[in-house]
Write a structure and sequence with these properties.
Helix content is 39%, strand content 15%. The chain has 335 residues and is α/β, with parallel strands linked by helices. It binds 1,4-dihydronicotinamide adenine dinucleotide.
């Protein structure tokens, strides 16, 4: 098959070429760098979360049959358009829920124990004073987990290990999971009002878009910490900025941001500001959050461990092989 693989790191090319030998593979960093002839011949496209795949991108590939995204989320793909075009989409449903759950706790602990501030203080001033670096215990605090899927469940297990009280919200509660892991399901507003730490683990779709907004923030327990390792779109960025200002949210750990793909692309957007008002506004607020002393922003790295990257590639290669050999769409995104 003709495979177009949008890669990130050089080593991926050798790894993928070996495992998919027998196929014609073109490697590129982005779709814009691929010539018309290759696009025309592409039957399988492999992408990552920052490769937006909408109508204009997909239309460049008239022979496209399968999009294999190397991610758990698939909100970067226009599924209505792939359906209309008859293009199948597969994803990587599970490559290590521990990986993202561990990172969630890395953010929580960084905030609860002020680790970045402590490191900065020691390296930039040499001072070993401790007064400004007092944190808070996790044991005995309540954590509210939004979304009890693969990652959320793992977060619950880790939280129990820290001695935290756990409540969770999921519109599709898993039967028996609460008893098995020792937590209580609650309504969304109740979770917001009781939690000292709120952590988001739902997918981005119409039901979760901006679920943290001006209205829902009114329910948040004063001084709670917000963690988002799911997708930027779950949080209305401007509402979070206001909540931080007012102290409703005392601190935030954000691995994902709305418009994170456009950070650093300000000049491009400013060439036609009228067309990009919302994006420009979000980037402005993102910069506010990046520079906020009580916010930790990381560049979408919760998935990024040696072990998880290999598992992501292996599952994607397996997805592509099954399709090439038997037309079977493994790990199909249900539309
Ligand atoms: P999952 O599909 O196993 O779990 C999602 C859960 O959200 C399900 O239990 C579902 O019932 C629940 N849900 C659905 N609608 C909801 C709503 N309105 N409110 C609250 N919960 C709702 O997905 P998984 O594997 O746990 O991943 C969760 C998300 O984490 C992914 O969709 C992806 O966006 C994000 N992610 C982020 C990564 C990163 O590097 N930052 C890496 C991997 C995933």
């Amino acid at each position: 098959m003709n495979i177009l693989f949008l890669y990130k790191e050089e080593w991926e090319k050798d790894y993928v070429s070996q495992k998919l030998s027998g196929h014609t593979i073109t490697f590129s960093k982005s779709l814009d760098e691929v010539n018309k002839e290759t696009l025309g011949a592409t039957e399988v496209l492999s992408i990552f979360v920052y490769h937006k795949c909408g109508e204009s991108e997909i239309s460049k590939m008239p022979n496209l049959k399968l999009i294999a995204t190397r991610s758990t989320g698939f909100d970067h793909i226009d599924l209505e358009f792939t359906k209309a075009r008859g293009v199948e989409v597969c994803f990587v449903p599970s490559y290590g829920e521990n990986t993202v759950a561990e990172f969630t706790f890395a953010l929580i602990l960084s905030l609860s124990r002020k680790i970045p501030e402590a490191h900065n203080q020691v390296t930039s001033t040499g001072s070993f004073t401790q007064g400004n670096l007092r944190g808070f215990d996790l044991a005995g605090k309540t954590i509210g987990v939004v979304g009890t899927g693969r990652i959320g469940s793992h977060v619950i297990k880790i939280a129990k290990g820290f001695g935290m009280e756990v409540i969770a919200y999921d519109p599709y509660p898993k039967q028996g999971l609460d008893l098995e892991l020792g937590f209580r399901y609650a309504q969304f507003e109740e979770l917001l009002s009781l939690s000292d730490v709120i952590t988001l683990h739902a997918m981005l779709d119409d039901s979760t878009y901006h679920m943290i907004n001006d209205l829902s923030i009114q329910h948040i327990k004063h001084g709670a910490v917000l963690i988002n390792t799911a997708r930027g779109g779950l949080v209305q960025t401007s509402s979070l900025a206001k909540a931080l200002e007012g102290g409703v949210v005392s601190a935030a750990g954000l691995d994902v941001l709305e418009e994170e793909n456009l950070m650093g692309e300000e000049l491009k957007l400013l060439s036609d500001p009228g067309k990009h008002t919302e994006e420009i506004n979000n980037i402005l607020v993102n910069n506010y959050l990046v520079n906020h002393p009580r916010v930790i922003v990381t560049p979408h790295i919760a998935f990024n461990t040696e072990e998880a990257i290999r598992r992501i590639l292996d599952t994607t290669i397996d997805n592509i092989c099954s399709f090439a050999l038997s037309n079977e769409v493994k790990n199909k995104v249900a539309i």
